[in-house]
Each structure stands twice: as structure tokens, then as C-alpha cells.
UniProtKB/TrEMBL annotation, chains A, B, C, D:
CDD domains to which the protein is assigned, alphabetical: NTP-PPase_RS21-C6_like
Protein name stated in the entry: Nucleotide pyrophosphohydrolase
Pfam families the UniProt entry points to: MazG-like (PF12643)
Transmembrane spans: none
Length: 104, 104, 104, 104
């Protein structure tokens, strides 16, 4: 993410004195809660795409609060994990399959 | 996020022919599943921070796949939602309180 | 649930001195975590039904631990909620529709 | 659960012609969604216990719809899983510890 978004989020929380609530555990709960609200947009097979956009933003927002709280760079951890996943799912074995790696 | 991360994610999925699995609904399920794995790092009150970093990366990764699939800019939707949240939680009313806005 | 199942669960936790971990909050987290493992059986559109049965059992187990911890009778709270839901979704309005009640 | 609760749930869904929406996958999503609403009662460290009771009832309700849909007896699957868990976590090794079994 661009650093300026992180700064805006920090300022938002700071102005409201909300950093006290942003423990890693509370943020982990919040990410799960917002993820479920996103899932709710797809609950019965139909979809409300405008609502989905907003809920996705909520999940992302809490993820950014959490990476900031843990002193992590969101781009860097995504890249580091992608590197690991590339090795776990080599192109030849994984092509066109959604199996878990232990069934490839 | 920086555009280059998005490009790497696209390439990763494309090489494995995984775009077919990345429907908005499947991605919404995946975000919830990874969010719960992150929560599991805090399940019994203790924390495994290294595991948390990796699970947070997984949640972010699926969020980026989803925003890309929906044609959205992750920074932009976070900012747009922040603007709404600022209005819902005015500084004076929200300071130091974790209540939902309807109880402020 | 039959009382004998609740008794077995209590005994299981007590023998392992696990009641100390079974705070309402930890149980709420555990229910979300297990629910996501159940969801994972349906992640990519295919299903592993044997795994689903076991994950469903895990969700139920933590729900029973929680109702027991809160001094609630699981049958009774399901019935009480059903009564409320019946009123919220009158048969004539709700028939064949999956809309949320505010869109009926 | 007592069979009469299951019967009431069946009747509730049937009257509203909602069985069509109760696919195993939709129910799995619904269980995750309701589990997150339960978790929300504990989001910021404070708790709304009345709300928690009702959300727990919602999780249980969808679990019962799902076990019924899969032709499973909820008591029986809880018992079967408990038997497995007893073996995975022998009393002597597990006493007073919340580690995952692979770290016992």
C-alpha cells in the first residue's frame, strides 16, 4: 500500500484515541468479523457487489492497522509469502488444480 | 499497494491457471478462511507472532486478488471507506470509545 | 442436545484441566475458527463431505461448551430464537425468498 | 439435540420454501457468518452477553440445519469426534496445556 494511506489510517485512529483498542488480538478478531460481512454478500448465492466493495475495504483497513501495529510492511509480507507459495505449488504440478499442496 | 505486487500476484495465478478458481465468491470464502487462521494465532490468549505475520499475509493476498478481480484499487477503496467512517464517528463523540456508532 | 453429551464434554475438559481456557471469549474465537475449517471443505466449489462432518462436529462441540459455560440450554435458546425469527419472516412474505427481512 | 427441535426447524424452513437455499455450502457460509456475529460480541474486549446468547443460538440453528441436511445426528457426530479428540490429547500429556497436539 502507499505509505500515505497508512498515515491517514494512523491519524484517524490517533485523533479518536483508538490505538488503545487496536491490540493485535482485537485486530485479528476484527479482520474475521469484517471477512464474514464480506462473505455475507455471497451468502445465498446472489451477490450485492456494492456492499462487497465496502466490506472488502473494511477487511483491508483492519489488515493495514494490524500490519502497522506489528511493524510490518504489507507489500513486503505479501511478497515474502508469495515466494514461499511459489515453491509449495510448482507450476507443473499445480496447473489447473485447486487441490491442497499435499494432494498435488 | 504498489502495482508491482498486484502484477506478481496476477502472474502467479496465471502461470498456474488458477484464475478459474478465483471467482468473487471463492475469494470471499478464502478471505474468511485465512482470517480464521490468523485468529487461531490468538485462540487461547497466547500468541505465535511469526505465524500471525504469515497468516496476515494470506488474508492480504486474497484481498488483493479480490480487489483485482473486481477491478478495484485497494488504496482507493480503503480511502473512500475511511472518509465515510470519519463522518460516522466524529472525533468529539468517538474519542476513547469503542461503542458502535449507534451508541455514541 | 441430550444432557449426557454435555456431561461427557464437561468430563473431557475437566480431566484435562481445560476449563481455565474455556472463557466465553476464547470459545467465541474457537467457534469462528472451526466454522472456517468447515467452510474450507467448500472453498473451491468441490466438497470433502467426510471432512465436513468432522468440522461440523467441532463447531457444535464448541457451541455446547459455550452454552454450558453461559448456563444456557442449547435446545431452549434455539427454540427462543426460532420464535423470534418466525415473527420477523412471516410465511406469506418470506416464501421462496432469501432476502434479508428489511427487503421483504 | 432433541428430535422435536429438529422437527420445528424443518417445519420453519419448509413453510417458507427455504430448503432450496439450504445447500451444504450455503449453510457452511451461514455458520461462519453467524460465528463472526457471535465473535463481534467480544470484539473490543467488552461483552454484550444478551446479544451473545442470541448469536450462539444462530450458530447452533445453522449447525442443526446442516446436520439435518447431511443426514447426520448432531449428538452422534459430537460424540464420535470427542472419542477421537480423547485419543489425540491423552489426559497425562494434555493436562493444563492449550498447545496443539503436535506440540504436546
Amino acid at each position: 500500500m502507499h505509505e500515505s494511506v497508512i498515515r491517514e489510517l494512523r491519524e484517524f485512529a490517533s485523533e479518536r484515541e483508538w490505538e488503545q483498542f487496536h491490540t493485535p488480538e482485537n485486530l485479528a478478531k476484527s479482520i474475521s468479523i469484517e471477512a464474514a460481512e464480506l462473505l455475507e454478500c455471497f451468502q445465498w448465492g446472489t451477490t450485492d457487489m456494492d456492499a462487497a466493495e465496502e466490506e472488502l475495504a473494511d477487511v483491508l483497513t483492519y489488515c493495514l492497522f494490524m500490519s502497522d501495529r506489528l511493524g510490518l510492511d504489507p507489500d513486503a509480507i505479501v511478497r515474502a509469502k508469495l515466494e514461499k507459495t511459489r515453491e509449495k505449488y510448482p507450476i507443473e504440478k499445480a496447473r489447473g488444480r485447486s487441490d491442497k499442496y499435499d494432494r498435488l
